[in-house]
Amino acid sequence: MKALIESIAMQLVDDPSQVSVSEVDEGGRVRIELKVAKEDMGRVIGKGGRVANSIRVLLRVAAAREGKRATLDIIEP
Asked: Pairing between strand 29-35 and 20-26?
């Protein structure tokens, strides 16, 4: 799941070297934290949060295939 989010984020941003993804396992839940450069926050969130919500849907599907639940947090720099 971490690799999925990392690859999606790297395709969206202008500066892929600033992409940082961490995975925190909280029992049956997994929390993915995504950090990007301040200039790229708009690209990752999108208008009205559409891009971020789409990424979250993909993450939920990937987690369901593994029998887990996952959430995505986009951390401000």
From this structure: antiparallel
